[in-house]
Amino acid sequence: MQQKPLTPGSLTSGLLSPRLLTPHRFFMVAGALLLCAVAASVTQGSVSISWSEHVQFFAHFFRLDSWLQSVFDIAPANEQANLILSNLRWPRIVLALFVGACLASSGAALQGLFRNPLADPALIGISAGALLGASVVTVVLSVYAFKVGHFYQLLIIVGAFIGALTIAWLVFFLAKKLSSSAKQMILYMLLVGIAVSAFSAAGAGLSKYFLTPNELRQVTLWQLGSLQPLSAPLLTAVVIIVGLVVVGFSRLHHALNILALGAEQARYLGVNIKKLQYQVVILSALGVGLCVAVAGLIGFVGLVAPHCVRLLIGPNHRWLIPGSALVGAIMLVLADFLSRQVLTAEIIPVGIVTAMIGAPWFLWVLLHSRSK
Hints:
Distance between the termini: 38 Å
Family: Belongs to the binding-protein-dependent transport system permease family. FecCD subfamily.
Oligomer: single chain
Shape: globular
Number of strands: 0
Membrane topology: Multi-pass membrane protein
Subcellular location: Cell membrane
CATH architecture: Orthogonal Bundle
CATH class: Mainly Alpha
Transmembrane segments: 90-110, 122-145, 151-174, 186-210, 230-249, 280-305, 317-335, 347-367
Main location: membrane
Largest sheet: none
Helix content: over 70%
């Protein structure tokens, strides 16, 4: 019998087969859930806004007020509803969508790179590094009383990116020095990540002593994870950068699939592992640094979302990365919805909600892996 030629596709076909759902069916269901989550989040809050008011808002946004009024006899737009939707609800929802997608896709790519389901931007220190970098820049700008609109936000984003990249490579360097095998490196990476995260969190906490009381309150809410609406130019930049990061991760799916077979097999099949590590870490630092700079520290999205997708459609990164981005967007939109529903007079920081959901999930993963 003639044997089939050895190819990356033949090696990974059995390993990467779907489990419970086909990818196309999964994306249909997840897309419907995302629409439902957005619909619930945009209509409910301290002020309920009806669907007719949404139609009026979009008509006003696209300058179709007079046409709709003449053809369908729709009343003029409600100014209060327009202000709430344009300045609060929709910017907040768009930010939740793209921050959730970025954190989840980063988690999926890091788990594939380190071949460990516990790898996560928060667990290996990237999120804490971004928080430290952004906090240091905030203190420096506060000391010099420098607050100039969009440039101020840009400096914080740059600081978060530098902090995330520095901590990520510090964790990687120390884990490589301490370990003698690839399996040990995974363990040391998580342990060093925990230690470095604690140090970064301490540095970010220390920075609060250099802020005024008003700045301290704002920074504390931001560090807990806060989806405060952004200006239109900054929100547009977030959408573009996150889109590029998710596409960049998706383009690495083939190399990540082969890496799942092991480092030696991946090298044999032509995967440049060092280049892949550079690409994943830099993209993660850019995406997570941006998310931390604009939304604060939001944990467990990058851990929970890839697990959910992997259980449903399997570990093929061709579907896992975009699927994780979709589930991460759903998770953060729902977390934002819950944060505005628990207390009528206050908005709970969304990072608290994701931690309350993600921490039990993390414990379940540890117990489940222990029982195997």
